[in-house]
Amino acid sequence: MPRDAQVPVAPIEADAAFEQLAKFDHVVLAVSGGPDSMALLVLAAEWRQRRNGALPSLSAATVDHRLRPEASREAGFVARESLRLGLPHATLPWTDEKPLSGIPDAARQARYRLLEAHARSLAASTVAVVTAHHLDDQAETFAMRLARGAGVTGLSAMPAERALLEGSTVRLLRPLLPFPKSRLIATLEARGVPCVDDPTNKDSRYERARIRHALLPALVATGISAAALATSARRLGDAEAALHYAEERFTATLALSFGNEVFAAFDREAFREGPTLLRQRLLARLIARYGGASERPELSEIEDLAARLQAEEKSTATLGGAMVSSGSRFIRVWREAGRLAQPDLLLVPGESRTWDRRFIVRRVPEAIGPVRVRPLGQENYLVIAGRLIPGRRPPARAVHALPSFWKDDDLVAVPSLAPFAVASEAPFLEAGCELKALALSAAY
C-alpha cells in the first residue's frame, strides 16, 4: 500500500480538485451517507468556506431508492450532517415500481433522473451535480468492463465531467477521482465525522461487490494495483479522445446526412474504405441514435455487422432497434418500427415529453384540445404519402416509426415529415407549428 494511502486529503489538494466546480452558479452534492459521499460533503463544505462567499452555492441531495428499510433513516442522517455544515438538503424518493432484475442498473438510472430533475428545479443559470466517485471506483469499473471484453470506449476512464443525462444541460462532475477510498475514509476519521454502511456494497449477488471483494484483492496480490488499473483507464480515455478526433474526420468523408431525423444516409464506398475500428464506431453511434429506447447491442454484434457491410454488395440487417440497409451507393439507418414499444402519450397544454428516447414531443398552450402521440405506422403513412414530394420521400419503413399527433381518431400532424411535404401540405403536417417533435440527438 502506498505510503500516503491513508493520509487525509489536504486543503490544497481539495482546492485543486474542486476548482472545476467554480464555473457553476450552483452545485448539488449527491450524498448517500456512505464514507465516500460524506467525505465529498465535508471537503466541499470546507472548500466553500475558503472561498469566502464566492460562487458556486452548494446544496446536498440524497436519493432514497426505497429498496431498504434503513434508507429513509440514512437520508435523515445526511440531512442533519448537511445542516450542521450549513448546506441545504433534499431527499429524493424513488417511488416507481421496482424491477424484478437488473436492480443496480435501474437504481443508477433512477438516481441520475431524480438528481437531474432536482437540479433543473433550482433557481440557477448553470447547475452541476457532483458525485463521490474515486480512484477505486475507476479501477472497479475498468475490471468489470474488462471481464465483458470491452473495447477502447468501454475501458476508457470515467470522465471527470460530462452531461448528467443525454441532452441535459446539467453537468455531472467527479472531483474525487484522483483519490483512493482509503484517503477519503482517513479524511472522515481525522474530523470525527460519522458515516453509514450500505450492506449491498458487500452483497456478492452484485457484480461490483464481487469485483471489489474478490477480483481486485487477487490482482493486488499479484502486484496489479487499483492505481495501475485507474491509470490504464485514464490512458485509454486519452486514446478514446484521439479516436473520436479520427472518427470526426472519417465521418466528414462520408457525405453523412440526417433526413430531419427520419433516417441517416452515407456514402457506401467511402465507408468501406475506412479503417475497421472507425467503421464500427460510426455504426454504433448511428444505431444508438436511431435505435430509440431499444437495448444497445454488444460490441461483437457491431463488429459482425460492420464485417457484413464490408463483404456484401447489398444487405439489410436489424440491430439495436435500428434497420441498416446497404445499397449500391448509400447505406441508410432508421428506426425499426417492429421494435418500437412506445405507448401512446397524452400531452396537456404546454407539456413536453420524451418519446422513444429519440424525440421531445411538445404542444404549445394554444394547441387544439387534448392530443395523443403514437407511432405513425404503415397503414397511416399510406394515407398521407401523397402529401409528400415525389422523388424526395424518405424510405417508407423509416417513416413508420415517427411520432404522430392525434386528436381522438383524427391524425393531426407528423412534424418530422414537414420538410418532405409539397408546399400546400406542410401546414397540415406541422399543425401550424403548434405541435413539435424535436430530436434529442446532439449534432453528430
Automatic annotation (TrEMBL):
Enzyme class, spelled out: ligase
Catalytic reactions of this protein: cytidine(34) in tRNA(Ile2) + L-lysine + ATP = lysidine(34) in tRNA(Ile2) + AMP + diphosphate + H(+)
InterPro entries linked: Rossmann-like_a/b/a_fold, TilS/TtcA_N, tRNA_Ile_lys_synt, tRNA_Ile_lys_synt_N
EC number: 6.3.4.19
Location (main, coarse): cytoplasm
Binding site for ATP: S32, G33, G34, P35, D36, S37
Gene Ontology MF terms: ATP binding; tRNA(Ile)-lysidine synthase activity
Cellular compartments per GO CC: cytoplasm
Domain tRNA(Ile)-lysidine/2-thiocytidine synthase N-terminal: 27-213
Record's subcellular location: Cytoplasm
Keywords: ATP-binding, Cytoplasm, Ligase, Nucleotide-binding, tRNA processing
GO biological processes: tRNA modification
Function, in words: Ligates lysine onto the cytidine present at position 34 of the AUA codon-specific tRNA(Ile) that contains the anticodon CAU, in an ATP-dependent manner. Cytidine is converted to lysidine, thus changing the amino acid specificity of the tRNA from methionine to isoleucine.
Family to which this protein belongs: Belongs to the tRNA(Ile)-lysidine synthase family.
NCBIfam families, alphabetized: lysidine_TilS_N
Free-text comment about domains: The N-terminal region contains the highly conserved SGGXDS motif, predicted to be a P-loop motif involved in ATP binding.
The name this protein goes by in its record: tRNA(Ile)-lysidine synthase
Organism: Hyphomicrobium denitrificans 1NES1
